[in-house]
Known about the structure:
The complex is a heterodimer of chains A (269) and B (333).
Chain A (H helix, E strand, L loop, with lengths): L16 E5 L5 E5 L3 H29 L4 H26 L5 H5 L2 E5 L7 H9 L1 H4 L6 H9 L6 H6 L1 E5 L23 H10 L2 H12 L6 H18 L9 H13 L12
Antiparallel strand pairs in A: 1-2, 3-4
Helix pairs in contact in A: 1-2, 2-4, 9-11, 10-11
Chain B lengths: L4 H24 L7 H24 L3 H19 L10 H15 L1 H24 L3 H5 L9 H9 L10 H21 L6 H23 L3 H34 L6 H7 L1 H26 L8 H21 L2 H6 L2
Amino acid sequence: MPDRLDISTHDSSTTNRLFITTPEGISLSLTLAGPGSRMIALIIDSLFITVIVGAMTKLGGVFSLINPEFKVAFILFSQLVTGWMYYIVFEWRLRGQTPGKKLFKLRVLDKDGFQLKLGQIVLRNLFRVIDAIPVFYLLGGFICMFSSKNQRIGDMIAATVVIYDRHFSPPHIENIAPDKFNSFYNYPHLISRARQQITPREASMLLKAILRRERLLPESRMHLYDELTDYFKSIVHFPVENISNEQYLRNMLGILYLRKTHRTPLQQI
Amino acid sequence: MIFDVERFITQNKANWEALERMLDRIHQVGFKSFDFNESNQFYYLYHQTSSDLNRIQTFSSESELIDYLEGLVSRAYAEIYSIQRRKWRIRFKEFYLVTFPNVFRKHLNLFYLALITMLVGAFLGGSAIMLDPQAKDILIRFSHLEGSPYQRVLEEEKGRNKALDGQKISFSSYLITHNIQVSLFALVLGITFGLGTLILLFYNGIILGAVIGDYLRFGVGTFAAGWLMPHGAFEIWAILIAGQAGFLIAKSLLKGGPHSRITQLSMAGKEILTLFFGLSSLLVWAGIVEAFFSQYHAPIIPYNFKILFGIIEVLFLIYYFGFLGKEKTESGT
Lengths: 269, 333
């Protein structure tokens, strides 16, 4: 029997995750946003800010009716303040999202998972001035890349992180391994053995391999499914002939994830 | 080991969707719209979903489902366990009468450090000018300060300098925004373990010392005092506070203790903010004074009057930062 794979590492080893433990003892993990996506969101926000400042400059013309100096004062203050207030107002009102961040489903969060406080929002945005040096947030991006929680300097001071905030809906298993004709159900004792022996992580790996079918190149897919089939066959071998490796794996999925132990083709799923 | 994901989803989906609806409602309308039963229901759903999450984490690595449930639980967790004051009122009175002076006093030694740095720079700048007048070209590079001070004094006294007519509001706005930016920069440079802040304060000191030294050299010290003191009192104090805040950042990074550097830094965050807003207020006043008052010289406004004005300002600052708001903290916890 070949060595069982050690799949103890989390499969998404490329993404950086933030771990929070709730008082109920549940541990949550949130995906931290990397410097790349943050940079793009920032570019979008900068564009918006430029537009707003431009609009305010035009608007300042109104003030010149009262006194031309008010126009200058208005423009100077709005230039200084808009850069901060855009971020502060949006992150406060939209719960940690600016339009740019919203577009890319990013969100600012307190690093312990709590609600964002206004002081944190102000701090992290005031420190943009140092994150932005020398140009284009080079310093901030650099630090973000190497920080354990993907924080730039402003985040570190404000104890905030930026997460990738996707809302998932529960996946539908029925679509993946339709139970219509699964020859494995002829071998209930092998089914029990398979369910006993195969760990949840192995099962999950199998599920992913099938779910990602379309994302694989045909050659790689075949190679992967061959390997997986050999692997699972080494644990439990179902003596069915004339089915492709992919079908073998789909049948495997069916017996692992769907409840029924006997084949009942006439019964509604 | 087999975990019936399908049944798990079918059984519990209704709860999760209910929790999601409640969360959406909280985000839109707020907790206050919930009555007692609904709040209980929310708490129950949070617990139920948490334990569902726990089960699936134990028995399966179904990452998409886990992500979904984690998303729900973390959103609900944030709502339940945060201290949230949605109605945020700006408490100016408390800020200016209590918070700001007390934070200042708490880090008084850092203020002194900033002061000493600037004084050393000023001494060096002044000495350099006095000993080697050629140094002026290197040290003082501002166009409006070039030329002989003596000449300038003569011009001003004859009332020939009309440069600021009709421009005072713009000028004061420019001064305020510019000074705030410079102070902010001095503050954030604190993350260079204080080196950047130190250099900036020192540099400002040199320039200040050089300008004063220049005027002293020409024997027009009184003019200089009358010109600089009215706005300088507040402006220099504000820059020193910016340095103080920068050193506070440096201190948080450097000191030992049970927390990581980053955590220590974030613990000082609120005080840093306090100092920044406080010094910005000082700069607003300084900007107004500089544009509307400092530029008027004798005989329009006698020098002694302006010097007295400056002295009164300094005394006020000493009183404000030295004594205001003190009793309240001593009687508190």
